[in-house]
Write a structure and sequence with these properties.
The chain is α/β, with parallel strands linked by helices. It has 20 helices and 21 strands. It has four domains: about 140 residues, ATPase, nucleotide binding domain (Nucleotidyltransferase, domain 5, 2-Layer Sandwich); about 140 residues, ATPase, nucleotide binding domain (Nucleotidyltransferase, domain 5, 2-Layer Sandwich), CATH 3.30.420.40; about 220 residues, Glucose-6-phosphate isomerase like protein, domain 1 (Rossmann fold, 3-Layer(aba) Sandwich); about 55 residues, Helicase, Ruva Protein, domain 3. It has a five-stranded mixed sheet with strand order 3-2-1-4-7. The longest helix has 22 residues. This is ROK family protein. Pfam families: GKRP_SIS_N (PF22645), ROK (PF00480).
């Protein structure tokens, strides 16, 4: 019987580890990580060294496949994790340490694609571990969490409120930071520590008395790396994984407790201290992450919808004979004003579709789901504005509304995409967020062509989440999403500049969606926002005004009630209702 197999491969300097997972779509996607924990991990020598060749590594891959696969297996996708910096599209390694230099060559990737004819996606091992950690529930909540796999060196990945954080389009390279004693990669290397034992056994280092001095020095070094990460990246919590976590979990060594004690000795300038936790899944995390990545990418690719550039209505001019550069300023502004009015009026034809989405979205949020916006360029930035303002306007939990922007969130407000980010997949981002069937993904792409958006919707649909596309043109149905909201904004006065009419219409649709959903969620009484956050003087005055209207209070009474409830408007309203 043919098995549909997804392969996860973790490439290390010494070992090549693999996992084969059978999935035909019948099992719920969210149940797979727990099932993977019970699956066997195959381990072979990677044959990587400074003088290794592509053929050496391909030989190791073949040995791994011979042990992983059965005759007749159908490989549907391959996810690969490795140390080093990977390009944003997940197609190749950009930099690697000396003993992994052969991975910079294209030969082994070509071999995999030619042998299996499937999508092969590469990801940094710390990011793969973070995806694995997210799938097991370790990255939940409105927190900044660092995942630190410790093995031969120190990997590091940061999740900010369920979104991966990559400043300057790169990893936070904690292991490459240099202190007076050396690089953290060397100071915190679990492999180097294990080499101090006659048997090369890391567990002996942490259980035998003769290694006490080395053990204490190592814990101080690791605490130093954690302290640095806390200060530089602002992390609230660090999850230690990798081979170090595997070994210490097996002997029940209280590393997290000792690290926390060491960190308390330091005089930090930050207002809080970082929490440390050991992840028992350790080396299994990057394999789980790689398999989930292979599955997600395969589903997204299978639903991809490609159109010819000539079919894009967003690229056609408002009027071909129009010469903007010959108009007076008054005529130019009048023309732009007229066009913007059209963008709003044409939305009337989409009201029923927007209302349908509001009802489904409200039900999903009430059931514990999240609203997740996905966009590239202007679309993503408009969504980010809505995301930020929902929390302070309606007091809605920040972890329940997220925005993902092509290129990452770190510099999205000030940088435009310059590296084909719109054409990359958003599946890794959504895996970081641990997308589930409870969630709603709203993708925004005026042309409908951005693969970053399409891949999000296709993946969302494959895991059972409700998926909505906001685009310019009306479409009855599309394979990669459940519902389409048409902007119908028409051709742009400046051909192709969808930050204009399409952007105006997009902002209106987002306003309609989020405001209506918050009304449905009970965040509004009459025409007043009753759960707003009192985070500045203006909002405190607004809250007082709401209390005056709702409870017929004077200014002083409203202020006193608000102050008694620590400027929490919702709590104040409940308190006043209870006293009526």
């Amino acid at each position: 019987m043919t098995r549909n197999i997804y392969l996860g491969i973790d490439i290390g300097g010494s070992w090549l580890k693999g996992m084969a997972v059978e999935w035909d779509g019948n099992k719920p996607f969210h149940s797979l990580p727990q099932l993977m924990k019970a699956l066997p991990v195959v381990k072979v020598r990677s044959r990587l060294a400074v003088d290794a060749t592509s053929d050496d590594f391909i030989g190791a891959l073949n040995e791994l496949f011979n042990r992983l696969l059965q005759e007749g297996d159908c490989v549907r996708g391959i996810g690969i994790s490795t140390a080093g910096i990977v390009d944003y599209h997940g197609t190749r390694l950009l930099t690697a340490s000396k003993h992994l230099q052969v991975l910079l060559e294209q030969g082994w990737m070509d071999y995999l694609q030619n042998s299996f004819g499937v999508n092969v996606t590469v990801i940094n091992d710390a990011e793969a571990a973070s995806i694995g950690a997210a799938s097991l529930g370790y990255l939940s909540g409105n927190k900044i969490i660092g995942v630190m796999p410790v093995g031969t060196g120190v990997g590091f990945s940061v999740s900010r409120n369920g979104r991966r954080w990559t400043p300057n389009f790169s990893l936070p390279l904690l292991g490459c930071i240099y202190s007076s004693d050396g690089y953290y990669d060397n100071l915190c290397s679990a492999s180097s520590l294990a080499a101090l034992d006659d048997e090369g056994n890391l567990c002996n280092i942490f259980t035998k008395s003769e290694h006490e001095v080395s053990r204490e020095k190592y814990i101080k070094n690791l605490a130093g790396a954690i302290s640095t990460a806390h200060i530089i990246y602002g992390v609230d919590k660090i999850l230690v994984g990798g081979g170090l976590a595997d070994a210490l979990t097996s002997v029940d060594f209280p590393l997290a407790k000792l690290l926390m004690a060491e960190l308390k000795k330091e005089s930090l300038l930050t207002s809080s201290r970082v929490e440390v936790e050991l992840i028992p899944e350790g080396n299994l995390l990057p394999l789980i992450g790689s398999v989930l990545l292979a599955m997600g990418e395969e589903k997204a690719q299978s639903l991809r919808y490609q159109r010819e550039y000539t079919d894009f209505g967003t690229e056609k001019p408002y009027a071909e004979t129009l010469c903007l550069d010959e108009l007076s300023s008054t005529d130019l502004i009048r023309l732009l004003w007229q066009a913007e009015q059209e963008a709003g009026l044409n939305l009337e034809m989409s009201v029923s579709h927007i209302a349908t989405v509001v009802e489904k979205l409200s039900a999903k949020l009430a059931d514990g789901g999240r609203l997740i916006y996905v966009g590239a360029g202007t679309s993503g930035r408009l969504a980010a504005i809505d995301t930020v303002e929902i929390a302070c306007t309606f007091g809605f939990p920040r972890e329940k509304v997220l925005t993902f922007i092509a290129g990452g969130i770190a510099d999205a407000a000030i940088d435009i995409e310059t590296r084909f980010e719109e054409d990359a997949s958003s599946v890794p981002d959504l895996l970081y967020a641990n997308l589930s069937e409870k969630d709603v993904v709203v993708g925004i792409s005026a042309s409908g062509s951005a693969y970053y958006v399409q891949s999000a919707l296709g993946f969302a649909r494959s895991v059972g989440a409700y998926s909505v596309l906001i685009q310019e043109e009306f479409a009855e149905s599309l394979s990669f999403c459940d519902t389409v909201i048409a902007l119908r904004s028409g051709n742009e006065v400046l051909a192709g500049s969808t930050r204009m009419k399409a952007g105006t219409a997009t902002k209106k649709v987002l306003n309609f969606l989020s405001t209506s959903v918050m009304v449905r969620m009970g965040k509004v009484h009459g025409c007043y926002m009753t759960d707003l956050e009192c985070i500045n003087e203006k909002l405190i005055k607004r809250a007082e005004s709401v209390l005056k209207v709702l409870f017929n209070l004077d200014q002083e009474e409203a202020y006193r009630a608000l102050k008694q409830n620590r400027y929490n408007l919702s709590q104040t309203i409940h308190s006043l209702k209870g006293n009526m």
